[in-house]
Amino acid sequence: MSSLGYPQDVEFDLCCVPLYGTRCGFYDQPAVAGVSGRRETSGIPDVLGRIFGWTSGATIGTFFTIAKRGEKIGTDEFGNTYYQSRDNVSYDGRKRRWVIYNGYADASKVPPEWHGWMHYTYDEPPTEVPLPRRAWEKDHLPNLTGTPMAWRPQGSLGAEGQRPAATGDYEAWRPE
After folding, report:
1. Does residue 29 belong to any structural domain of this protein?
2. Average pLDDT, the chain
3. Rounded distance between C-alpha atoms, residue 85 and residue 68, angstroms
4. What is the pTM assigned to this prediction?
């Protein structure tokens, strides 16, 4: 078993999983015979999704706001795009920063280096000054809770396999 509780021989492919009617969820899923899990969309549903859908990516109104006020700073390995305001300054005197998620909007999909930039911990974005990687650091994974790849501890109802036998220290309650 790996540190996440997955069998070592399972290969993972970063692919899209439909979640709650959105275009894609962008979580790790096992690779199945070369199937990527991405759904092909025709033009009309995609355009309607951009106009009316707010749960997966940016709407058409967001694109207009970005074109008028935003400046693209960079994109991370998950496909999330980061922006900063051109001239609009927030109440504390700093330029506003925001992210447009690739697929389902989930804050845990923001890697640590971009999280630091978004929260003004770093002045320079990771595209200009990359953070040094330590040997002990693992790659960033989004929160997998609620997905098929969520960790299930041994003995839980969702875990596969047999439940371990009781150890003998349990005594059933009996009403008197």
Report:
1. yes
2. 73
3. 9
4. 0.60
